[in-house]
Amino acid sequence: MKIALKTILGFLVIAAFTACEDDEATQPHAAMSVGKYIYDTNETMKIHFTGSAENVVIYTGDTDHDYELREASNYGLVVNKGLFTYSYQQPGTYKVVCVATNHTDAGNSIKRDTCSFMVKVIDDVTEIERLSAPQVIYDEVFANPVNETDWLLRLPRKIKFKTSNATVSLSQKLKFYIGSDSTKVYIDDKEFSSTAKYNLANVLNIKLKSHEGTERPYKLYTVNYGEFKTFELLGVQGTITRSEFDYSYYEINMTVPSGSDLSNLAPTFTLYSDNDKVYIDDVEQISGTTTADFTKPVTYRFVASYPNRPDITAESTVIVTVTPQ
């Protein structure tokens, strides 16, 4: 069968044209949806890609991800399965740019499409996450929230340090854990300093001021764990043994003359503060009056409260062990 040369040339032209069409990338479509346009710092932004493209990246507009600076090493972040999540660390207004790209396998043809929107990130953090005295001898002691505005720091009067019992000062540095570096802290109307020592014998009036200007007041109370200042039984003074790990617990060990009746004794003791109460179970103990059975270890429970604030307390435990000589 003879095929005309004209027909063969026609086939070649069509094949060549088809090959050129296969090398040409299709036009992508950049489109995205977002739930809102105002966020707090560290709040997650969710973007859904609703267009069509082989490759999608998003420039979030903050440091290292500014679309306008893409020629200066700034770069977009890859969208995975149509969903992109991101949170901003710093407040500001940012231009979010979506870049959708299609290309041929050989990379000879690349086509792009972009879309964008603006987001505003605000920093209105006025919440204390954690608060501590970071250098109580060698340890960091954390305060606890009592309610929405009051914090309580419980401190021992003394602490076991190596081979001695070191006295804990009420002049201490403080450390604030806050979810924003832009939030400012004031103590008694002066800007907080991490290197300054504060007198914890007094209530500290704390104020947090956010980047947006919102202010929130707090108070820090400090209560020492209760303990016996002196403890005497049958004329013998007790010897204190402290724990390195639990500041709310210590022991008193005593040796008394052999043959002593330990079953019903009223110890004499003194306390450090009128706001300290001591109990066996739920019975308040009175020096020289209330009796206990010392034939076995006796557990005393201390409740120390802040003056005129019975809701602000520190509880501790003392175990007294008496051994006949």
UniProtKB/TrEMBL annotation:
Q: Which UniProt keywords apply?
A: Signal
Alphabetical list of PROSITE patterns matching this protein: PROKAR_LIPOPROTEIN (PS51257)
Name the chain's protein: DUF5017 domain-containing protein
Give the signal peptide as a residue range, or say none if absent. Answer: 1-21
Would you say which domain of life the source belongs to? Bacteria
Q: Which organism is it from?
A: Coprobacter secundus subsp. similis
